[in-house]
């Protein structure tokens, strides 16, 4: 029987685990060096005790930049066999991490198969799964229900979970005070914002954060602190809402470490190139050098169909500036960074169209309207005011409805 519950607890006790030895071998470092970095929290080794197929990887300071692949089903894309093909391709090309972002129906069968076969670490966002898992609409879900879903994912063997604990009442006040073009674009963040506004309650993942950490500690699950208020267009980057939440995430990082739970912190999604380096340094400073997981950032908003390019530009700058974990364009992006007059106007018009979920106008402002439209129509959503990835759980739709005083419901549509 092992003498520790988590990798961080072992590291603090001076124990070098088999996972630390493997990470040291992969990184060409001494095992003692890995142990010391895990103990201080600047490196995480996401490795659930129930994920027996895993080949452990380290994420953080001084280590190779790791790559995550997102996949999963939605109401408009229900083919699990296609998602498993994506898994096989990700493993073939050496991705260190796979996130199952499924948000439709009963997802645990696919997730269990994924965990059983994958040597890559597996991440999830329990918030996405809550409605289908519990068979309850958003307004009817209780704080205890959310914790049930976290425990279910932990028991299945998930190595890290995105938990949007930082969008508490203080962060929401900053968001509401400092108006945005795109509001909330995080799917999980929008659902929690809607739940908080409809119930009048505090974010359950913040209010019951200690209970969440107890579950994660039991199975050695790493918490990936989600950025619910990340910018969804370049004009919203580094605003009051984003920074207010980042301050909360720094405090939550230390609380997790106090319970020997490993931490990663998630970062901005859309950002002009000239802001990226400063954001990387700010995150590391406010979150005590915890490993930083960057979603992009996309350096321009007008290249749908070319996100792999715009995110590659942002990801390269982010990694060079200190980001540890990346989620997989144009001269126009540089013009934005240099402050060329009127360079942002087209991006701002695109943001306005995205805010209204006006696809025809989005195509109009896109660099390549034909390709963007082709991608959109390749899997047409059942509701044209959503997209095939998020469906009715579209973050923009959810936030717009709440801000318009409407009630958000899902179960009748699943």
Any overview of this molecule?
It contains 19 helices and 10 strands. The protein is an alpha/beta fold. The protein folds into 2 domains: 40 residues, no CATH class; 368 residues, Alpha-Beta Barrel (TIM Barrel), CATH 3.20.20.540. The strands form 2 sheets. It has an 8-stranded parallel β-barrel, surrounded by 7 helices. Strands 1-2 form a two-stranded antiparallel sheet. The termini are far apart. The model has no long low-confidence stretch (mean pLDDT 92).
The main sheet comes to: 8 strands, parallel, barrel
The helix fraction, in percent, is 40-55%
What number is the mean pLDDT? 92
Q: What number of domains?
A: 2
Order of helices and strands: HHHEEEHEHEHHEHHHHEHEHEHEHHHHH
Going by CATH, the architecture of the largest domain would be Alpha-Beta Barrel
Number of strands: 10
Radius of gyration: 20 Å
Euclidean distance between termini CA atoms = 44 Å
Residue ranges: pLDDT <50 for 5 or more in a row? none
Q: So, the CATH homologous superfamily of the largest domain?
A: Radical SAM ThiC family, central domain
CATH topology title of the largest domain: TIM Barrel
| Class derived from helix and strand content | alpha/beta
Give the neighbour order of strands across the main sheet. 3-4-5-6-7-8-9-10
How big a fraction of the residues is strand?
A: 5-15%
Number of separate helices:
19
How would you describe the shape? globular
The CATH class of the largest domain turns out to be: Alpha Beta
